[in-house]
TrEMBL record:
Keywords: Flavoprotein, FMN, Monooxygenase, Oxidoreductase. One of its GO terms (biological process) is alkanesulfonate catabolic process. It comes from the Bacteria. This is Dimethyl sulfone monooxygenase SfnG. InterPro entries: DMSO2_SphG, Luciferase-like_dom, Luciferase-like_sf, SsuD_RutA_monooxygenase. One of its GO terms (molecular function) is alkanesulfonate monooxygenase activity. It comes from Paracoccus caeni. PANTHER family: ALKANESULFONATE MONOOXYGENASE, ALKANESULFONATE MONOOXYGENASE-RELATED.
C-alpha cells in the first residue's frame, strides 16, 4: 500500500506573497500572521511548512525574514507541524548549520528539517560579498555541505576532507534527536537530480505536469537505486480551490492580468543563472513562460486550479507520477489553507482509500 501523500505550504516569511502580481493578497509576511497560519495549517492536516531564505530580492519581495530563526519561532507556536528551514551554502557553513539545527531539534521535539538550496540569484551573492560559483560547482558544494551535516549529526570524531569544507576529529554534542532532521533539497537540473540521488532525503522540484514530473522521477529513482540510496519527491503547486472551476480560473486570470511585468522580467533575468545555466540547459525555469514566472516556482504548471474534486483528482495524478509530497502556495494563505484542509484534503484521503481498496480487490 502506498503512503498517504504529504502536504507542505510555503511560509510567507518574504513580503509580496507567492505571486508577482498587484492582485489583492490577504497574506502577510509578519511573525503574527505566520504564527496563526502555522496553527491553522497543522489543524488543517498539513505535515510541513517550508520557509524561504533570501538576503535580497528584486521581484516585489522587499522584506525577507531569515529562515532558521523564523522556523524556530513557528515551531515554538505549534505542536505537530514540521518546519523546514532553508540553508544556503556560502553564507552558512555546515559547522554552524549542524549546531543550530541540532539545538532546534531539541527545542522542538525533533520537528525541524532543512532545505539545502544552492543559489540562483547572482545579484544577491554580490550584495553580500559571497563568491559566485558556476552552476555545477554550486551543487558540488551543496553535496559536500549535506555530507558534512549528516556526518556531524551521526558520527563522533568526524573527519572530512572536501574541496569546500574540512573537519578534523569533530564531535558535536548534543546530536539532534532521533530520527535525524530530514534533508530536503531544491532544484531540477541534472546536477540537482544527481545530488539528490546520492545524498538528499527529499528532492523538491518546481511546478510541472504529471508527465514532466514522471521524467524527473524516473531519472532520479534509477540513479538513486544504483547508488543504494532512497529519495522522496516533493512538487510545487499554486493552489486555487474555489466552489466552481469558473471562479478558480477567474482568479488565475486576474493574477496574471495584474502581474507586474517589470518585476516578472527582472526575475526572469535573474533565473537565467539557474537551471538554464547548467551544462545540459535543463532545470528550474529553463522552459518557463511569462505566465509561469508570475508564480516564481512555476506553481501554475501543476494545475491545482479548480474545484476541490478536480484538485484532489489532480493531486492523485501527481502522486501517480511519483510525488510523495505536494508543496502549496496560496493567494490568501490563512483563509485558503483552512479551506484546503476542509474541502480538498478529505477528498484526497478518500481517493487514496478507494485506490487502496481497488488494489486489494485486484490481488
Ligand atoms: C521548493 C524549492 C524551494 C526553494 N527555496 C529556495 C530558497 O528559499 N532560497 C533560495 O535561494 N533558493 C531556493 N530554491 C532554489 C534552488 O535551491 C535552486 O537554486 C534552483 O531551484 C535552481 O536549481 P537548478 O538550477 O538545479 O534547476 C528553491 C527551489 C525549490 C524547488
Amino acid at each position: 500500500m502506498t503512503e498517504p501523500v504529504k502536504f507542505a505550504y510555503w511560509v510567507p516569511n518574504v513580503s509580496g506573497g507567492l505571486v508577482i502580481s498587484n492582485i489583492e493578497q490577504r497574506t502577510s509576511w509578519t511573525p503574527e500572521y505566520n504564527r496563526k497560519l502555522a496553527q491553522i495549517a497543522e489543524q488543517a492536516g498539513f505535515d510541513y511548512a517550508l520557509s524561504q531564505i533570501r538576503f535580497t530580492a528584486g521581484y516585489g519581495a522587499d522584506n525577507q525574514h531569515e529562515s532558521v530563526s523564523f522556523s524556530q519561532d513557528l515551531l515554538a507556536h505549534t505542536e505537530k507541524l514540521n518546519v523546514i528551514a532553508a540553508l544556503l551554502p556560502g553564507p552558512w557553513n555546515p559547522a554552524l548549520a549542524a549546531k543550530q539545527i541540532a539545538t532546534i531539534s531539541h527545542l522542538s521535539g525533533g520537528r525541524i528539517a532543512v532545505n539545502v538550496v544552492s543559489g540562483w540569484f547572482r545579484g544577491e551573492f554580490a550584495a553580500i560579498g559571497e563568491h559566485w560559483l558556476d552552476h555545477d560547482e554550486r551543487y558540488r558544494r551543496s553535496e559536500e555541505f549535506i555530507r558534512a551535516l549528516r556526518g556531524i549529526w551521526t558520527e563522533d570524531s568526524f573527519t572530512f576532507r572536501g574541496d569546500f569544507y574540512r573537519f578534523s576529529d569533530y564531535s558535536l554534542k548534543p546530536k539532534p534527536l532521533d530520527p535525524l532532521p530530514e534533508i530536503f533539497q531544491g532544484g531540477s537540473s541534472r546536477a540537482a537530480r544527481d545530488m539528490a540521488a546520492r545524498v538528499s532525503d527529499w528532492y523538491f522540484t518546481n511546478g510541472n505536469t504529471p508527465e514532466g514530473l514522471t521524467a524527473q522521477v524516473e531519472d532520479i529513482r534509477a540513479k538513486a537505486a544504483a547508488n543504494g540510496h532512497k529519495v522522496k519527491v516533493g512538487i510545487n503547486a499554486f493552489a486555487i480551490a474555489r466552489d466552481t472551476e469558473a471562479e478558480a480560473k477567474a482568479v488565475l486570470d486576474e493574477i496574471i492580468g495584474k502581474a507586474n511585468p517589470d518585476a516578472v522580467q527582472g526575475f526572469a533575468h535573474e533565473v537565467k543563472n539557474a537551471g538554464k545555466a547548467s551544462p545540459e540547459g535543463e532545470g528550474n525555469w529553463a522552459k518557463s513562460s511569462f505566465e509561469d514566472l508570475v508564480q516564481y516556482n512555476d506553481g501554475f504548471r501543476s494545475n491545482l486550479i479548480g474545484t476541490p474534486q478536480q484538485i484532489a483528482e489532480r493531486i492523485i495524478g501527481l502522486k501517480d507520477a511519483g510525488a510523495d509530497l505536494i508543496l502549496l502556495g496560496f493567494l490568501h494563505f490563512q483563509e485558503e489553507v483552512e479551506y484546503f484542509g476542509k474541502h480538498v484534503l478529505p477528498l484526497v484521503r478518500q481517493l487514496e482509500a478507494e485506490r487502496a481498496r481497488e488494489a486489494v480487490a485486484a490481488e
